[in-house]
Structures are given as structure tokens and as C-alpha cells.
Design brief:
Layout: H1 8-13, H2 17-20, H3 25-38, E1 47-50, H4 57-64, E2 68-73, H5 76-85, E3 94-97, E4 111-116, H6 126-138, E5 140-151, H7 155-159, H8 161-166, H9 168-177, H10 191-198, E6 203-210, H11 215-223, H12 227-240, H13 244-247, E7 252-259
Parallel strand pairs: 1-2, 1-4, 2-3, 4-5
Antiparallel strand pairs: 5-7, 6-7
Helix pairs in contact: 3-11
Length: about 260
């Protein structure tokens, strides 16, 4: 977690984002849960903007399932990875390097669904988080679906407990701000804070989901499950991931909302 002074570009240049979502059972939960929920709202041939697409795992999934997908990312390496991967999938409608803070290439109310599945938790500046919401909602049709992912503040206390238990001042700084002096690449929020923020916009929250559930607590056990056992875990997870008592323990959260 100690990546002070590293930019977002440097951070993503050092990892393989798509592999993260496939590596182990516990990592797969986030992707499987996200597509399970988003598929409930997609009509055939929907027009989707994946506004912070990473390496394109969601873009390719929805494109391969017959939707028109437009994929952009701030990190040039991620966009290069998407372009390299294109030959293995149905063609994306557009692939571009760009920030969710500026989607001027697209007109107002263009998309049936807009995915904000990465940018929000890299914006430590409140005004930039607001701008990311304004701009991505601008290009979403009225009645369209908005999906935004976030990282939970308290779940990361579990993840980085050894570091925080050695430095309680750092822990308090992190709890107060959602980031700290050793890591200013990630911004972490809480279920209530992000709901309050979204309700400042013309949005109706439909689902609020603990995307990877209790991964940090029992992830080692989940990783040892065989295929049948993991299917049973996913069935349990999907039946319980909207329970509000679980939201704060999940590393990633997902809110699905409708633009009014």
C-alpha cells in the first residue's frame, strides 16, 4: 500500500488489472457479481460507455454479449492492452485515452448505461469526484443506468491491519480523509458517504452491493474451494451481498442507479 508519489499511470503500469479479477476465487467474486447485476438492466444491443475501462475486462464481456461498447481510460498502458486484446473479441465501437473528467467527445444523453468502475476511488480531490459524476452522468440518457464502484474505508483497515497497528496516527489520518500520507493514489469512502454524495444528483439508487463480500475475512478459505464449492459460495454471496450489515466489510462496493 505504500506507493506515495506514484501516479495512477505508474501504479497501473506495474500491475495487470485484468489478471487481478481472475487470479483466485476470491478475486473473481467482484467481476462475477458486477456482471450478474448489470445484466439485469441491459436490453439487447445496448449502448454502453465503459468510462474507466482498465484493461477492458468489462468492455469485452459486454461487447462479446452483443452490446455496443465504447471504452476509455486515463492510463495509456491500459488502452494499449485493450487494443492488443481486441483480436480475441468482438470489436469495440471506440477505444480512447482520456479522463472521465472530460468526455467532450460524446454528446449529452448518448448512452443507455455508463460504467464508472475505477475512477472514483482514484480521485482524492472532492471537486474532481464531483466532476467525474457530472460528466459521466451528462452522457447518460434519462432513465439510463449508472454503475459506480468504490473502495470501502473500513475494509482496508482489515487488509492493511499490520501497517495501521504499527502507526495509529496513520490509521486516524486514513479514517478521517479516506487516504493517507503513504498512499495518495486510492480514495476510500463508506457506504453512507457515497450514497449521500450520489443523492445530490438526479439519481435513484436501485441496488447497493457488497461486490466481493467477506473476501478479506474468509478469502483464504474461499480460495481453497473446488469448482462446485465456489459455485455454492457464489450462490450464497449473491443472496446476501445487499445486506447492509455486510457492506462495510467488502473491499469493493457497487451502486447501481437510474438517471431521473
Amino acid at each position: 500500500m505504500e506507493i506515495k508519489n506514484k501516479s495512477i499511470e505508474e501504479f497501473y503500469g506495474s500491475i495487470e488489472e485484468n489478471i487481478r479479477l481472475k487470479r483466485k476465487n476470491s478475486n473473481k467474486i467482484e467481476f462475477l457479481t458486477t456482471v450478474e447485476y448489470l445484466n439485469k438492466f441491459l436490453k439487447p444491443h445496448s449502448k454502453i460507455l465503459d468510462a474507466c475501462a482498465g484493461g477492458g475486462i468489462y468492455s469485452f464481456y459486454f461487447s462479446d454479449n452483443g452490446h455496443q461498447v465504447y471504452a476509455g481510460d486515463l492510463v495509456e498502458k491500459n488502452v494499449e492492452d485493450i487494443k492488443k486484446e481486441q483480436k480475441e473479441h468482438l470489436k469495440l465501437s471506440d477505444v480512447f485515452v482520456g479522463s472521465i473528467l472530460d468526455l467532450h467527445r460524446y454528446d449529452d444523453e448518448t448512452y443507455d448505461m455508463v460504467l464508472n468502475l475505477g475512477s472514483y476511488y482514484h480521485l482524492i480531490d472532492k471537486d474532481k469526484r464531483k466532476k467525474s459524476l457530472e460528466e459521466s452522468l451528462r452522457v447518460l440518457k434519462k432513465g439510463g443506468i449508472y454503475a459506480i464502484a468504490y473502495v470501502n474505508r473500513y475494509s482496508n483497515v482489515i487488509k492493511f491491519r499490520e501497517m495501521f497497528l504499527e502507526d495509529f496516527e496513520l490509521l486516524q489520518e486514513y479514517i478521517n480523509k479516506g487516504y493517507h500520507s503513504k498512499n495518495e493514489v486510492f480514495y476510500c469512502t463508506t457506504p453512507k458517504l457515497i450514497e449521500d454524495e450520489l443523492l445530490n444528483f438526479d439519481l435513484e439508487i436501485i441496488h447497493h452491493i457488497a461486490t466481493d463480500g467477506m473476501k478479506f475475512i474468509i478469502g483464504d478459505v474461499i480460495n481453497e474451494l473446488d469448482e462446485d464449492g465456489f459455485k455454492k459460495w457464489m450462490k450464497f454471496h449473491l443472496s446476501s451481498c445487499e445486506d447492509r450489515t455486510i457492506l462495510g466489510s467488502s473491499e469493493h462496493g457497487l451502486i447501481i442507479a437510474r438517471k431521473l
